TrEMBL record:
Residues 17-72 form the HTH cro/C1-type domain. This is Helix-turn-helix domain-containing protein. CDD domains: HTH_XRE (cd00093). Pfam families: DUF5753 (PF19054), HTH_31 (PF13560). InterPro entries: Cro/C1-type_HTH (IPR001387), DUF5753 (IPR043917), Lambda_DNA-bd_dom_sf (IPR010982).
């Protein structure tokens, strides 16, 4: 799903909620617009997700429809939509080091991490060489400032969270990630050996979803991390999506549970990792 379509769907969902509120009140779009002093087309554009309502619009809408108590939740939803999408280029404009440092407070305050990766080994479980290969690719593709060495150092420093504090990490990785060469085969071999090591830490639960698994509801989706039950960060090709609405966080939690149900753990997961190492010769 593209960033623009993700945001547009969120706008349309907000518009549908407002349409339902208006219909429940018995008002037509024309009557609501007249009461608010708007052109009638404004209601249509808001309901169809073509125009984002302002906070004042939402207060007026709910007051006219007789449900002013719903204004606060609708405003929170609108703020989330406005801030949910940060372009990778904008985030990385000041350099990769700054992008890595920006998530430090989030990692420090989170106690329960749920990570699903369908693209690369999760950053907290990466070796320095693998991280460098990933970030060099980002520099090449996006033309971001080349401060890769500094960014690698920040990420390696952040990995202390695996061994300190009261943090727990549930990690799910698609098996094909284990066989995707980033950098060189030697870099991947080192990364996979490291994955076995960190996967045995008391704070880490590592699951691998085998190739050919019967999916049911647990189909591959975009990579994401759930931080406690407070926030979800979603990795898209062109953007970083931040989700803070509880209903949407619950959906990602459910998706994680379904994916966890088809993963293998312990000796079975290690066997898949060593199989990927052996395939590299």
């Amino acid at each position: 799903m593209s960033v623009s379509s993700s945001v547009q769907q969120a706008r349309q969902a907000l518009g549908q909620r407002l349409r339902d509120i208006r219909r429940d009140s018995g008002l037509s779009a024309r009557a609501l617009a007249e009461a608010a002093g708007w052109h009638e087309s404004k209601c249509s554009k808001i309901q169809n997700g073509r125009v984002m309502p302002s906070e004042a619009d939402l207060r007026a809408w709910t007051a006219i429809c007789g449900v002013p108590d719903q204004a606060a939740d609708l405003i929170a939803t609108a703020r989330n939509i406005e801030g949910m999408c940060i372009e990778w280029r904008r985030l990385e404009r000041a350099g990769l080091k700054r992008a890595q440092e920006s998530v430090r407070p989030l990692f420090e305050r989170t106690r329960r991490f749920r990570m699903y990766q369908s693209w690369v080994i999760p950053g907290l479980l990466q070796t320095a060489a693998y991280t460098r290969a990933v970030l060099n690719t980002i520099v090449s593709l996006r033309g971001t400032p080349d401060d890769v060495d500094d960014a690698v150092a920040v990420r390696m420093e952040r990995q202390k969270v695996l061994r300190t504090g009261d943090h727990r990490f549930a990690v799910l990785i698609e098996e094909w990630v284990l066989r995707t060469v980033i950098g060189t085969p030697d870099i991947l071999v080192g990364q996979l050996g490291h994955l076995i090591t960190v996967g045995s830490l008391p704070s880490v639960s590592l699951g691998v979803i085998p190739l050919g698994s019967t999916r049911g509801a647990g189909w591959p989706v975009e990579s994401f991390t759930v931080y406690d039950d407070a926030q979800v960060n979603v990795e898209l090709v062109s953007a970083h999506l931040t989700v803070t609405q509880q209903a949407e966080i619950s959906e990602y939690g459910q998706a994680f549970s379904e994916l966890a149900g088809i993963a293998v753990y312990g000796a079975e997961a290690r066997s898949l990792i060593t199989g990927a190492i052996n395939a590299l010769g």
